[in-house]
Amino acid sequence: MKGLILLAKAAIAFVWVVLLANIVHPFPGVAAMALYIMTGFLLVMHGLQMLIFLGAFGDKIAMTRWEKWSILIFGIFALLDIRRKHMM
């Protein structure tokens, strides 16, 4: 399970690299606009996941600052990793 979570985090990190590369140097045509929309959507969804998780479990689990930020970056895969570390 740990290996699959690590693989999924690597895939999400690659997605973030592509999305941030589009901001620094926009891709040609309509692709840039689609990637801007995906960037905003991914940031909002992962932000909501982070806020909901911290609201529900923030006082019950002692998490590091990196674990909190990793939810914003990796989303559900960070939550699965946190669950594996703290709740099992």
UniProtKB/TrEMBL annotation:
Q: What is this protein called?
A: DUF1145 domain-containing protein
Q: Which UniProt keywords apply?
A: Membrane, Transmembrane, Transmembrane helix
| Pfam families registered for this protein in UniProt | DUF1145
Q: What residue ranges are annotated as transmembrane? A: 30-54
- Which species expresses this protein natively? Salinivibrio kushneri
| Origin superkingdom | Bacteria
- What InterPro entries does the database record attribute to this sequence? DUF1145 (IPR009525)
